Description:
Blueprint lengths: L3 H11 L4 H15 E6 L2 E8 L2 H14 L5 E4 L11 E6 H14 L2 H4 L4 H15 E3 L9 E5 L2 H13 L5 E4 L4 E5 L2 H10 L3 H48 L3 H5 L2 H12 L5 H12 L5 H16 L2
Antiparallel strand pairs: 1-2, 2-4, 3-4, 5-6, 6-8, 7-8
Helix pairs in contact: 2-3, 2-6, 6-7, 8-9, 9-13, 11-12
Amino acid sequence: MITFSEQIKEELCHNNYEKRIKFIIFSSYFINRLKLILTSNGPMYSIETNYSFIARFLIDCLKTNFKIMHTVSYSNINKFNGKRIYNITFAEKDFIEIKKIINDYTNTKNIDNFTIKENMGFLIGSFLSGGSISDVTKPIYHLEIRTNNRQYLRNIQKVILSFNLSATMLKRKYSYVIYIKKASEISDFLKCIGAINSMYKLEDTIISRDLSNQVHRLNNLDVSNINKSTKAGESQVEMIKKIINTKFFKKQNEKFRHFCNIRINNPSASLSEISKIFMEKYKIHITRTGINHYIMKIKKYFNNK
Protein backbone atom coordinates (compact mmCIF):
# COMPACT_ATOMS: atom_id res chain seq x y z
CA MET A 1 0.00 0.00 0.00
CA ILE A 2 1.35 3.41 -0.99
CA THR A 3 2.08 5.74 1.95
CA PHE A 4 1.14 9.41 2.15
CA SER A 5 4.84 10.33 1.83
CA GLU A 6 5.05 8.34 -1.41
CA GLN A 7 1.91 10.03 -2.74
CA ILE A 8 3.47 13.45 -2.10
CA LYS A 9 6.75 12.48 -3.79
CA GLU A 10 4.95 11.03 -6.80
CA GLU A 11 2.90 14.20 -7.16
CA LEU A 12 6.07 16.33 -7.00
CA CYS A 13 7.75 14.22 -9.68
CA HIS A 14 4.81 14.67 -12.05
CA ASN A 15 4.60 18.45 -11.74
CA ASN A 16 6.06 20.68 -14.47
CA TYR A 17 9.13 22.78 -13.65
CA GLU A 18 11.31 25.32 -15.44
CA LYS A 19 14.84 24.26 -16.38
CA ARG A 20 16.40 26.36 -13.61
CA ILE A 21 14.10 24.88 -10.95
CA LYS A 22 14.90 21.35 -12.15
CA PHE A 23 18.56 22.21 -11.60
CA ILE A 24 17.87 23.35 -8.02
CA ILE A 25 15.79 20.23 -7.27
CA PHE A 26 18.50 17.95 -8.65
CA SER A 27 21.21 19.87 -6.78
CA SER A 28 19.37 19.60 -3.46
CA TYR A 29 18.82 15.87 -3.96
CA PHE A 30 22.44 15.42 -5.09
CA ILE A 31 23.82 17.08 -1.94
CA ASN A 32 21.75 14.90 0.37
CA ARG A 33 22.01 11.49 -1.28
CA LEU A 34 25.50 11.40 -2.80
CA LYS A 35 27.43 8.17 -2.18
CA LEU A 36 31.03 7.17 -2.94
CA ILE A 37 31.52 3.70 -4.43
CA LEU A 38 35.00 2.21 -4.66
CA THR A 39 35.42 -0.06 -7.72
CA SER A 40 38.31 -1.76 -9.51
CA ASN A 41 38.11 1.00 -12.12
CA GLY A 42 38.45 3.72 -9.52
CA PRO A 43 36.00 5.70 -7.42
CA MET A 44 32.43 6.12 -8.67
CA TYR A 45 29.75 8.40 -7.31
CA SER A 46 26.03 7.76 -7.21
CA ILE A 47 22.70 9.03 -5.97
CA GLU A 48 20.04 6.50 -5.09
CA THR A 49 16.32 6.17 -4.47
CA ASN A 50 13.80 3.44 -3.69
CA TYR A 51 11.30 4.76 -6.21
CA SER A 52 11.36 4.35 -9.98
CA PHE A 53 9.37 7.56 -10.51
CA ILE A 54 11.99 9.56 -8.57
CA ALA A 55 14.80 7.90 -10.60
CA ARG A 56 13.07 8.87 -13.88
CA PHE A 57 12.49 12.40 -12.63
CA LEU A 58 16.13 12.84 -11.56
CA ILE A 59 17.38 11.55 -14.91
CA ASP A 60 15.13 14.08 -16.66
CA CYS A 61 16.53 16.89 -14.44
CA LEU A 62 20.07 15.67 -15.15
CA LYS A 63 19.58 15.56 -18.90
CA THR A 64 17.91 18.98 -18.89
CA ASN A 65 20.87 20.68 -17.19
CA PHE A 66 24.00 18.58 -17.82
CA LYS A 67 25.56 16.83 -20.77
CA ILE A 68 27.29 14.27 -18.60
CA MET A 69 27.56 10.51 -18.91
CA HIS A 70 25.77 8.47 -16.29
CA THR A 71 24.59 4.92 -15.82
CA VAL A 72 21.41 3.65 -14.19
CA SER A 73 21.15 0.38 -12.32
CA TYR A 74 18.81 -1.20 -9.82
CA SER A 75 18.99 -3.97 -7.25
CA ASN A 76 16.77 -6.96 -6.76
CA ILE A 77 13.56 -6.39 -4.81
CA ASN A 78 14.22 -6.39 -1.09
CA LYS A 79 12.10 -9.16 0.42
CA PHE A 80 11.66 -7.22 3.67
CA ASN A 81 10.29 -3.93 2.27
CA GLY A 82 9.38 -5.00 -1.28
CA LYS A 83 11.47 -2.23 -2.86
CA ARG A 84 14.40 -1.91 -5.23
CA ILE A 85 17.29 0.53 -4.94
CA TYR A 86 17.81 2.62 -8.09
CA ASN A 87 21.29 4.09 -8.60
CA ILE A 88 22.36 6.89 -10.95
CA THR A 89 26.14 6.59 -11.17
CA PHE A 90 28.82 8.98 -12.45
CA ALA A 91 32.51 8.47 -13.22
CA GLU A 92 34.93 10.58 -11.18
CA LYS A 93 35.67 13.16 -13.89
CA ASP A 94 31.94 13.77 -14.52
CA PHE A 95 31.19 13.87 -10.81
CA ILE A 96 33.81 16.59 -10.25
CA GLU A 97 32.20 18.77 -12.91
CA ILE A 98 28.70 18.30 -11.46
CA LYS A 99 29.86 18.89 -7.90
CA LYS A 100 31.66 22.12 -8.80
CA ILE A 101 28.61 23.57 -10.55
CA ILE A 102 26.29 22.55 -7.73
CA ASN A 103 28.58 23.76 -4.95
CA ASP A 104 29.01 27.12 -6.66
CA TYR A 105 25.27 27.56 -6.92
CA THR A 106 24.07 26.15 -3.62
CA ASN A 107 26.56 27.60 -1.15
CA THR A 108 25.02 29.40 1.82
CA LYS A 109 25.68 32.88 0.40
CA ASN A 110 23.81 32.14 -2.82
CA ILE A 111 20.93 30.42 -1.00
CA ASP A 112 20.35 33.68 0.88
CA ASN A 113 19.57 35.27 -2.49
CA PHE A 114 17.31 32.51 -3.84
CA THR A 115 14.01 33.51 -5.40
CA ILE A 116 10.76 32.06 -4.05
CA LYS A 117 10.70 29.49 -6.88
CA GLU A 118 14.32 28.51 -6.20
CA ASN A 119 13.52 28.11 -2.49
CA MET A 120 10.60 25.92 -3.53
CA GLY A 121 12.92 23.80 -5.71
CA PHE A 122 15.44 23.42 -2.87
CA LEU A 123 12.71 22.13 -0.53
CA ILE A 124 11.35 19.78 -3.19
CA GLY A 125 14.81 18.21 -3.57
CA SER A 126 15.20 17.91 0.19
CA PHE A 127 11.80 16.23 0.61
CA LEU A 128 12.36 13.83 -2.30
CA SER A 129 15.77 12.88 -0.89
CA GLY A 130 15.04 12.62 2.82
CA GLY A 131 11.51 13.69 3.62
CA SER A 132 8.65 11.81 5.21
CA ILE A 133 5.31 12.63 6.74
CA SER A 134 3.16 10.66 9.16
CA ASP A 135 0.15 8.71 7.94
CA VAL A 136 -2.77 11.14 7.60
CA THR A 137 -5.12 8.63 9.27
CA LYS A 138 -3.19 8.99 12.54
CA PRO A 139 -4.03 11.80 15.00
CA ILE A 140 -0.38 12.91 15.35
CA TYR A 141 1.04 15.06 12.56
CA HIS A 142 4.77 14.97 11.87
CA LEU A 143 6.85 16.01 8.87
CA GLU A 144 10.61 15.55 8.85
CA ILE A 145 13.61 15.79 6.54
CA ARG A 146 16.66 13.70 7.33
CA THR A 147 20.29 14.12 6.24
CA ASN A 148 23.87 13.38 7.28
CA ASN A 149 24.97 16.86 6.17
CA ARG A 150 24.55 19.40 8.97
CA GLN A 151 25.18 22.47 6.81
CA TYR A 152 22.66 21.22 4.25
CA LEU A 153 20.07 20.92 7.02
CA ARG A 154 20.81 24.46 8.20
CA ASN A 155 20.19 25.69 4.67
CA ILE A 156 16.90 23.77 4.58
CA GLN A 157 15.89 25.42 7.86
CA LYS A 158 16.79 28.82 6.44
CA VAL A 159 14.61 28.21 3.38
CA ILE A 160 11.70 26.92 5.49
CA LEU A 161 11.90 30.02 7.70
CA SER A 162 11.76 32.20 4.57
CA PHE A 163 8.21 30.86 4.07
CA ASN A 164 7.29 31.92 7.65
CA LEU A 165 7.14 28.31 8.84
CA SER A 166 8.75 27.02 12.02
CA ALA A 167 11.16 24.08 11.87
CA THR A 168 13.08 22.40 14.67
CA MET A 169 16.52 20.82 14.16
CA LEU A 170 17.90 17.96 16.20
CA LYS A 171 20.67 15.39 16.02
CA ARG A 172 19.78 11.74 16.11
CA LYS A 173 22.23 8.90 16.49
CA TYR A 174 23.59 8.80 12.96
CA SER A 175 21.90 11.74 11.27
CA TYR A 176 20.40 15.21 11.54
CA VAL A 177 16.67 15.86 11.33
CA ILE A 178 14.49 18.90 10.84
CA TYR A 179 10.80 18.55 11.62
CA ILE A 180 7.43 20.33 11.66
CA LYS A 181 4.62 19.16 13.95
CA LYS A 182 1.77 21.68 13.52
CA ALA A 183 -0.83 20.35 11.09
CA SER A 184 -1.47 23.83 9.67
CA GLU A 185 2.25 24.37 9.00
CA ILE A 186 2.64 20.94 7.40
CA SER A 187 -0.23 21.89 5.10
CA ASP A 188 1.52 25.20 4.30
CA PHE A 189 4.77 23.32 3.62
CA LEU A 190 3.00 21.09 1.08
CA LYS A 191 1.58 24.20 -0.55
CA CYS A 192 5.04 25.80 -0.67
CA ILE A 193 6.52 22.82 -2.54
CA GLY A 194 3.58 22.57 -4.93
CA ALA A 195 2.06 19.32 -3.61
CA ILE A 196 -1.43 20.82 -3.89
CA ASN A 197 -3.43 17.57 -4.18
CA SER A 198 -1.63 16.18 -1.14
CA MET A 199 -2.30 19.40 0.73
CA TYR A 200 -6.04 19.09 0.00
CA LYS A 201 -6.01 15.48 1.18
CA LEU A 202 -4.32 16.45 4.44
CA GLU A 203 -6.70 19.36 5.05
CA ASP A 204 -9.75 17.19 4.29
CA THR A 205 -8.50 14.67 6.84
CA ILE A 206 -7.87 17.39 9.44
CA ILE A 207 -11.36 18.86 8.92
CA SER A 208 -13.01 15.42 9.08
CA ARG A 209 -11.13 14.50 12.25
CA ASP A 210 -11.87 17.86 13.91
CA LEU A 211 -15.57 17.52 13.01
CA SER A 212 -15.67 13.98 14.36
CA ASN A 213 -13.98 15.09 17.59
CA GLN A 214 -16.41 17.99 17.93
CA VAL A 215 -19.42 15.71 17.44
CA HIS A 216 -17.97 13.31 20.00
CA ARG A 217 -17.48 16.14 22.50
CA LEU A 218 -21.03 17.41 21.91
CA ASN A 219 -22.44 13.91 22.36
CA ASN A 220 -20.55 13.58 25.63
CA LEU A 221 -21.83 17.01 26.67
CA ASP A 222 -25.42 16.00 25.82
CA VAL A 223 -25.11 12.84 27.88
CA SER A 224 -23.64 14.84 30.75
CA ASN A 225 -26.43 17.41 30.55
CA ILE A 226 -29.08 14.68 30.44
CA ASN A 227 -27.56 13.03 33.51
CA LYS A 228 -27.45 16.36 35.37
CA SER A 229 -31.01 17.18 34.32
CA THR A 230 -32.26 13.76 35.42
CA LYS A 231 -30.50 13.99 38.76
CA ALA A 232 -31.83 17.51 39.38
CA GLY A 233 -35.35 16.46 38.34
CA GLU A 234 -35.37 13.48 40.69
CA SER A 235 -34.25 15.71 43.55
CA GLN A 236 -37.03 18.17 42.79
CA VAL A 237 -39.62 15.36 42.69
CA GLU A 238 -38.56 14.23 46.17
CA MET A 239 -38.93 17.76 47.54
CA ILE A 240 -42.32 18.28 45.84
CA LYS A 241 -43.70 15.06 47.30
CA LYS A 242 -42.73 16.27 50.75
CA ILE A 243 -44.49 19.65 50.42
CA ILE A 244 -47.76 18.59 48.72
CA ASN A 245 -49.66 18.19 51.98
CA THR A 246 -48.16 21.28 53.63
CA LYS A 247 -49.68 24.73 54.20
CA PHE A 248 -46.86 26.16 52.10
CA PHE A 249 -48.04 24.21 49.05
CA LYS A 250 -51.71 25.13 49.51
CA LYS A 251 -50.81 28.84 49.65
CA GLN A 252 -49.12 28.78 46.19
CA ASN A 253 -50.80 29.90 42.97
CA GLU A 254 -52.17 27.60 40.26
CA LYS A 255 -49.08 27.87 38.03
CA PHE A 256 -46.87 26.66 40.86
CA ARG A 257 -49.09 23.65 41.48
CA HIS A 258 -49.14 22.91 37.72
CA PHE A 259 -45.35 22.94 37.75
CA CYS A 260 -45.22 20.49 40.63
CA ASN A 261 -47.62 18.17 38.83
CA ILE A 262 -45.60 18.34 35.57
CA ARG A 263 -42.30 17.77 37.38
CA ILE A 264 -43.60 14.68 39.25
CA ASN A 265 -44.78 13.17 35.97
CA ASN A 266 -41.64 14.21 34.04
CA PRO A 267 -38.66 13.88 36.41
CA SER A 268 -36.02 13.96 33.62
CA ALA A 269 -37.53 16.82 31.59
CA SER A 270 -35.43 19.94 31.02
CA LEU A 271 -36.75 23.42 31.82
CA SER A 272 -37.42 24.00 28.11
CA GLU A 273 -39.38 20.76 27.91
CA ILE A 274 -41.43 21.70 30.98
CA SER A 275 -42.19 25.06 29.33
CA LYS A 276 -43.56 23.23 26.27
CA ILE A 277 -45.70 20.93 28.45
CA PHE A 278 -47.17 24.00 30.17
CA MET A 279 -48.32 25.34 26.81
CA GLU A 280 -49.58 21.98 25.47
CA LYS A 281 -51.42 20.92 28.61
CA TYR A 282 -52.56 24.18 30.22
CA LYS A 283 -52.21 26.72 27.37
CA ILE A 284 -49.98 28.76 29.68
CA HIS A 285 -46.79 30.43 28.42
CA ILE A 286 -43.99 30.32 30.97
CA THR A 287 -40.30 30.91 30.47
CA ARG A 288 -37.39 28.84 31.77
CA THR A 289 -36.69 31.69 34.18
CA GLY A 290 -40.23 31.47 35.53
CA ILE A 291 -39.90 27.71 36.03
CA ASN A 292 -36.54 28.16 37.72
CA HIS A 293 -38.20 30.67 40.09
CA TYR A 294 -40.55 27.90 41.30
CA ILE A 295 -37.62 25.53 41.82
CA MET A 296 -35.76 28.14 43.87
CA LYS A 297 -38.91 28.76 45.93
CA ILE A 298 -39.09 25.06 46.79
CA LYS A 299 -35.38 24.93 47.71
CA LYS A 300 -35.73 28.07 49.85
CA TYR A 301 -38.61 26.45 51.74
CA PHE A 302 -36.43 23.47 52.66
CA ASN A 303 -33.42 25.65 53.52
CA ASN A 304 -35.51 27.70 55.96
CA LYS A 305 -37.03 24.69 57.70
